[in-house]
Amino acid sequence: MNRQEKLVIFIIITFLLIEFLLLHDLPFFWDAISKSSRADWIYTHQFSSLIVPTDINSGHPPLWITGIALFWTFLGKSIWAARLLLLLVNFGVFYQIFLLAKNSFKGRYSIFLVLLVLLEPTLIAQSTILNNDMLLLFFVLLGINSLFKNKHWLYALALTGMLLTNLRGIYCSLALIIIHVWLYKAHLLDYNKKMLKSYLISFLVLLGFILYQYSELGWFLISKNEGYSEHRKVTELARMAKNSAAIVKNLLEYGRLIVWIPLVFLAYQFLNKKYFQIEKQSSRLLISLIVFCVVFFLGFVPFSNPMGPRYLLICFILANILFINLMYLLVKSIRLKRMYFAIIIIAFITGHFWIYPATIAQGWDCSLAYLNYFEQEKKMLEFIDNQKISRSSVGTNTTINTRWLSTLKDELKEEAKFETLSLNKNEFVLFSNIENITSDEDIVELRTNWVEIKSYSQLGVFITLYKNPNQP
Question: Where a domain ends, among 321, 353, 385?
Fold first, then answer.
């Protein structure tokens, strides 16, 4: 590792450490909240089972939540302990991206360009979220790097890890199998018989997990919990069309359109000029990107599960590295390249300030915009308490005061609860654009006919308390 590479590693480690120190007490947020409750079950039941009950089980394998429970066991049940686990995973993710970029650049241009790849808005946001997506991403990146190097033991670890982390690991494993076959057929990867062992090992581990879960719950993978199984049903054509549009939106938002739109033209030019067999690294990246995009499209679009940009994290990373490769290969002007990279930096940074109107669903865990929420929530809770408003009279679809998930004792949990939003029953309604559950009709009704009591906002993120006009 040369001096520049060591400096890049130092910058990455410094950034992640500063992020950890600044956000060490940041509560669980969005889908991570459910992971906390499952980790809590494993922790409080002293690892008597790694399979949580059906009423809180979405079907996802338990590697991430077991990790959180372990860190709570050794370091105490706290947010910072869970975030320490996330920090270690972040180190792994960023290092794997560094390796992928380094091997793709092949010393032809500055390794500092990997920092441009790491500026990806959703990657940065997910590095602050206590969900299992970063762990899944680590194993996927490890899988790609070990596949390109034909390292069968690391590849087995990667496949096994992704299958035990998230159900999307099945899609990722399928994508890697297709990539493996395609690279071999295209003479971009040497045949290594030992790599077949990796698939066998990971399959046997997944089979063992399935049998274990079935013995505990009587079902596997597809949850019998209606709250989760509803999201995995085949949907109608109209919803499929919306899902297709959602994938395109996810690819382009938060500043990514600056990369993806020109990437399409660069990729076409790359293939048209017949660089495919010459530029081995770029060809591998292009094949990998195409396969992941197609597998995710076919895997997500037909089903009712809402899709967030974080589902496509590996696509964003592959696209960024491929874009840099193709820019240096196909664009001769150094000045133009530097100018465009500067534009990308601006686009990625300002992407964290993209806020849609409240009636448009937004992936709040996919940019740092959500960090503006917690201080506003704190102010609102203080206002409600100071006004002597009973929480049982307040309805909301926002998960309020999630800090109790890791900091308060069990007997205090009830104090954090509000009623479910119902315009027909609630005397007060607490609404924030940080959630996507409230219907457009209810939002319009609140803003049109209900009385606004108090609102706090910061950089487009708000939380507002409304009073029922029909209540005295």
Answer: 353
- Per-residue pLDDT reduced to its tens digit, 388-443: 888 888 999 888 766 666 554 554 455 557 888 889 888 999 999 998 889 899 99
Mean of per-residue pLDDT scores for the chain: 89
Q: How far apart are CA 183 and CA 171, in angstroms?
A: 18
Is position 395 within any domain?
yes
CB 219 within 8 A of CB 304: no
List the strands of the sheet with 428-432, edge to edge.
419-420, 394-396, 428-432, 461-467, 451-458
Domain annotation covers residue 202? yes
CA dihedral 231→64→98→23, nearest 10 degrees, is 100
DSSP 358-371: TTS---GGGSGGGG
Beta bridge partners of 465: 430, 454
pLDDT at res. 219: 81
Pair (111, 175) in one structural domain? yes
Looking at the fold, whether 115 and 253 belong to one and the same domain comes out as yes
241-260 pLDDT tens trace: 888 888 999 999 999 999 99
* Count of structural domains within the chain: 2
Q: Give DSSP secondary structure letters for 201-231.
A: HHHHHHHHHHHHHHHHHS--SS-S-HHHHGG
What does the angle CA 312 – CA 371 – CA 324 come to, to the nearest 5 degrees?
40
Cα–Cα distances (Å) from 398 to 300, 333, 358, 401, in that order, read: 25, 50, 13, 9
Between residues 342 and 106, the one the model is more confident about: 342
Asked if residue 388 and residue 335 are part of one domain, the reply reads no
Q: Which helix (H) or strand (E) holds 463?
A: strand 461-467
Boundaries of domain holding 17: 3-353
Tell whether 472 is covered by a domain.
no
Q: Specify whether 377 is located in the same domain as 291.
A: no
Assess if residue 358 is contained within a domain: no
